[in-house]
Design a protein that fits this description.
Elements lengths: L2 H5 L4 H8 L5 E5 L5 H14 L8 E5 L2 H13 L6 E4 H16 L7 E2 L4 H10 L6 H16 L7 H7 L8 H18 L1 E2 L1 H14 L1 H10 L2 E4 L7 H11 L5 E5 L14 H9 L4 E5 L1 E2 L4 H11 L14 E2 L8 E7 H17 L7 E5 L5 H10 L4 E3 L9 H16 L6 H10 L12 H22 L3 E3 L5 E3 L4 H14 L8 E5 L8 E6 L15 H15 L2 E12 L14 H5 L9 H7 L10 E2 L6 E2 L2 H6 L11 H18 L3 H4 L2 H10 L4 H5 L6 H15 L15
Parallel strand pairs: 1-7, 1-8, 2-3, 2-6, 4-5, 6-7, 9-10, 11-18, 12-16, 12-17, 13-16, 17-18
Antiparallel strand pairs: 14-15, 19-20
Length: about 725
């Protein structure tokens, strides 16, 4: 293939990235903008032009799937021979090759596939009782520490600085960490982080190894650069040495793995760290319709913090499609049933089931959708996790609930009986477990309690023949039968179907139709997100979910978890939802905004136009932003508005606040409305004040002097 052919079909920004000169290149690529196309064509362009040799290129990805896709595309472009590997695969290959030299003839230690067994032994050695779930969480903490270049003796301070929530006291985790390192050495095994460290050590401490590796690999490409951790960055620096021929590609707005040690800091600082770096922005979105792109931009444009510095505003390139559907339901079961019906309609209309996804914040949310899809006879697959009733903690809980029938009095209310029965497994309703895996298991059992609440709140009338009808029993034994029925129904053979996945596991994927469900504060963002940085990562999770959709996008939440439960607020990151109040019954929010009369008994929900947080204070709602968010007020306009208000109030012989309150004046000076709709959107401005003062306000916004306004604008 000729180099000119490699450039065919590229947009101007992609072409700039492909043809950039040797040296540091940073490609900021928004979702759906063709980043893989850009980096593979860059490699092919450089190899086919004779600038570099394919065997001297190392392209690094984060998944084996991405590496395989990159190799396939490079082969099609005539650039076969390029090494495309994950960080771990590249490091393992090098460590194995140089092991005889690095280990002085000793055999390379065995690589562990999982830390959990050894971590469990280490915990027992230092007197920490840890079941398999706790061992998984301890392994996660150790993995974070090692990826962050933190040693056992440094863990307590480092964990405090990083605001970690370990499963045990930090000092105890540090003890387990130290014992784990000792046990590994004694058993002659290493973990994946050791392998990366060994590759770094081999290069940094052995000049001959460094020379050989650097002679082999001279040009580097790193995909998903926002996800690198300190250990991976150190390995990349070791590979590079003093050279700077490296191309990185990433999107700070898709940074969603900071809990594992990943950080976008290296992407953000790349131009500063690499002098003369070429920075290219890819913003043309070829994946999603302009309607989906518009919503994605609306979600991320309110982002704050470090990652927001590299925020990209996408430009949709596809033909127009349907508007995103924004829906609110009375409860989660109603939401799940509606999603299942809509999936069935899409499939009947010709959308393949495999091109539909239901995405949620936590794996524990999957049960409602597994049940609803099964009831609607819609095939589905669960990605990145076991089906709900196949999870070991759920199976154990069902055994405990069956045993509880014999020990709990039959007259005990169902929900109380379920909570008491689950207590036998160590579950505490009011105390979520610390640690990721343990918390996920806690949420799965909490989902069983929600099922019990739902079951108790809606006793079906069952047919019993011509003699009459019978209301089903609301007992623990009957509920156990219901759980068994659901489990049996969901154990059907797995076939190609609608994808059920968490937002984290959906990263890098896309579908024709996407349902983002459970968008309620407390779920997204999760209640465990307490700091500003954690909340921003939750916002980016929503952004990732929105940008998975090519054509159809549905966003929804249930006002309560179970029928009759506590009412929740919509996700604060969705300004479209927060402006429209809280319509019930699954109505379309956009329609409800125009048709539903305001409920004077319920405060209208509004969100800060800058950070997106839900506004509670009256002054904040009027101004439209948090008191702590920066004001973008037009000071000159504000002064002119105050002069006009004083003159108008004097002419009408009323106090100034009767004309417009101070907060409303500030809001006008910040938002600078130019149309009646924009002015009416400001709290404190209704139809009457629009008629009285609208003409004067628009004139002032346009630059008029207050003294030049005719007295007719002083109101009636």
């Amino acid at each position: 293939m000729r180099t000119e052919a490699v450039l065919d079909g590229l947009d101007p920004d992609q072409r700039t990235a492909v043809t950039a000169p040797a040296g540091p290149v940073c490609i900021l690529a928004g979702a759906g903008t063709g980043k893989t196309r850009a980096i593979t064509h860059r490699i092919a362009y450089r190899t086919l032009s004779g600038e570099i040799s394919p065997r001297h290129v190392l392209a690094v990805t984060f998944t084996a799937r991405a590496a395989a896709e990159m190799r396939s595309r490079l082969t099609e472009l005539g650039a076969g021979g390029v090494q495309a590997r994950t960080f771990h695969a590249a490091a393992l290959r090098q460590v194995r090759y140089f092991a005889p030299r690095l280990l002085e003839g000793r055999q390379m230690p065995e690589l562990m596939e999982s830390k959990v067994r050894v971590v469990g032994l280490a915990a027992a050695k230092v007197g920490v009782r840890a079941d398999r779930t706790a061992a998984r969480d301890l392994a996660g903490e150790i993995e974070w520490a090692k990826s962050s270049l933190v040693e056992p003796g440094e863990y307590v301070v480092a964990a405090a600085k990083a605001l970690r929530e370990p499963p045990y006291e930090p000092a105890r985790v540090a003890e387990v960490f130290a014992a784990y390192e000792q046990l590994k050495r004694r058993q002659g095994v290493i973990d994946f982080e050791d392998m990366l460290r060994a590759a770094v050590w081999g290069i940094e401490e052995h000049p001959d190894v460094a020379d050989q590796i650097r002679a082999q690999y001279r040009h580097f490409v790193v995909d998903e650069y926002q996800d690198v951790n300190p250990l991976q960055q150190r390995l990349l620096d070791a590979w590079l040495g003093e050279r700077d021929d490296v191309t990185v590609v990433g999107d700070a707005s898709q940074t969603i793995y900071s809990f594992t040690g990943a950080t976008s800091a290296y992407l953000i600082d790349f131009p500063r760290q690499r002098r003369g770096a070429v920075v290219v922005r890819l913003v043309r979105d070829y994946r999603s319709t302009p309607q989906v792109v518009g919503l994605a931009n609306a979600v991320i444009q309110q982002a704050r913090g470090t990652e927001a510095k590299l925020r990209l505003e996408l430009v949709g390139q596809r033909p127009p499609g349907p508007e995103p559907e924004l829906k609110i339901f009375p409860d989660e079961p109603g939401e799940a049933a509606a999603v299942a019906r809509r999936c069935r309609e899409l499939i009947a209309a010709g959308t393949p089931a495999s091109e539909i996804a239901v995405l949620f914040r936590t794996n524990a949310q999957s049960e409602s959708y597994e049940e609803a899809l099964a009831e609607a006879e819609v095939p589905y697959v669960v990605r990145g996790a076991e089906r709900f009733f196949e999870r070991i903690e759920v199976r154990r809980a069902m055994v405990a609930l069956r045993a509880a029938v014999r020990s709990i009095p039959g007259e005990t209310p169902l929900v109380e009986a379920v909570v008491e029965g689950l207590a036998a497994t160590g579950w505490n309703r009011h105390q979520p477990s610390p640690g990721g895996a343990a918390r996920e298991q806690w949420e799965a059992l909490a989902a069983l309690v929600t099922l019990a609440e739902e079951y108790a709140a809606s006793p079906e009338i069952l047919p019993i023949g011509e003699a009459g009808r019978l209301q089903r029993e609301i007992t623990l034994a009957a509920f156990n039968d219901e759980l068994a029925r659901r489990a049996e129904q969901q154990h059907a053979p797995t076939v190609a179907g609608v994808t059920l996945a968490s937002l984290h596991s959906a990263k890098g994927l896309e579908w024709d139709a996407v349902f983002l469900v459970g968008l309620a504060d407390g779920t997204l963002p999760t209640t465990y997100a307490k700091t500003a940085e954690q909340l921003e990562e939750e916002r980016r999770l929503l952004y990732v979910g929105v940008t998975r959709a090519r054509q159809v996008l549905w966003l929804s939440y249930g006002q309560s978890r179970a029928p009759g439960g506590r009412t929740r607020r919509p996700c604060r990151f969705l300004p479209q939802l927060s402006r429209g109040g809280q319509p019930a019954g699954g109505s379309d929010v956009r329609a409800a905004e125009h048709s539903r009369k305001p409920d004077r008994r319920r405060p209208q929900v509004s969100s800060c136009r800058i950070c997106g947080v839900t506004l509670l204070a009256g002054v904040d709602r009027k101004v439209g932003r948090c008191a702590t968010c920066p004001s973008d007020i037009d000071e000159e306009l504000h002064e002119r508005l105050l002069v006009w208000r004083a003159t108008t109030a004097a002419a009408l012989k009323v106090p100034a606040y009767v004309v417009l309150t101070d907060a409303t004046v500030v809001a006008v000076a910040e938002r600078r409305p130019t149309t009646p709709a924009q002015l009416l959107a400001i709290a404190g401005i209704g139809a009457r004040k629009l008629g009285q003062y609208g003409e004067a306000v628009f004139a002032l916004v346009a630059g008029a002097n207050p003294e030049d306004l005719d007295s007719k604008n002083f109101g009636n």
